[in-house]
Amino acid sequence: MNNTATFKFTIIVPVYNEQDNILRLESELSSFLKYAAMKSCVMFINDGSTDDSGNMLKEVCERHDNMFYLSFEKNAGLSAALKAGIDNTFSEYAGYIDADLQTTPKDFNLLLEHAPYYAMVMGIRTGRKDGFVKRASSKFANGFRRMMTHDDALDTGCPLKVIKTEYAKRIPLFTGMHRFLPALIMLQDGGIYKQIPVCHFPRIAGQSKFHLWNRLIEPLKDCFAYRWMKKRYINYSVESYKI
Q1: How far apart are CA 95 and CA 28, in angstroms?
Q2: Could you give the number of structural domains in the chain?
Q3: What's the pLDDT tens digit per position in 12-69?
Q4: pLDDT tens per residue, range 69-115
Q5: Is residue 239 in some structural domain?
């Protein structure tokens, strides 16, 4: 049996070369799990890290009966790591937070309050602590994405989200998927989402995996892929069955 089935909420944490953040992740997440609004667990996805992140995650999970991990053979990217976490989650809700801890697990409770009423609840970073270039490129990419997808999401780059697992499992996998979660949720029947302001902090350890190309150019290209897929997306409802 998949252990996440015994919890109501699973927090998915993609990890790629974050050895300097692992112990802080353990501390922050274990602290949150004690007062989470729902019975919660953590699933780390080691995305083919080449530093000591993988070994450290195994040790962390050995110390906690509510923390689990999955390791890729090689780096596959954030979208693949997130989708792998969703595919292996069997709790009612799946959450997502980045390993850099520029958002705090504490704010999950703000999102979980609204989770029963929406397919997805997502954060909006307030008082962003990123540099000018990162904020400017993010603002431009968000504006272009909204024009192409009409999802009205203000901050798809915020790595704090809670999704009903039944909706999350229907999200198609493609490179860049993580940038289009609101739009992909909207494709589904009943796919309504809510946005909630959350805190944002500067990165204090490790290095960002994003640069101008994968923060700006790649998202613009992915918008056209989304538009193509949107016209071909399939929805169906089962009336009755015998299986």
Answers
A1: 15
A2: 1
A3: 999 999 999 999 999 999 999 999 999 999 999 999 999 999 999 999 999 999 999 9
A4: 999 999 999 999 999 999 999 999 999 999 999 999 999 999 999 99
A5: no
Give the torsion sign (CA, 34, 36, 37, 39): negative
* Owning domain of residue 94: 3-230
Contacts of 222 (CB under 8 A, 6+ apart): 174, 175, 176, 179, 180
d(CA 70, CA 81): 9
CATH code of residue 41: 3.90.550.10
Q: What is the pTM of this model?
A: 0.83
Q: How many Å apart are CA 75 and CA 155, to the nearest integer?
A: 26
77: which residues sit within 8 A by CB, 6+ positions away? Answer: 47, 175
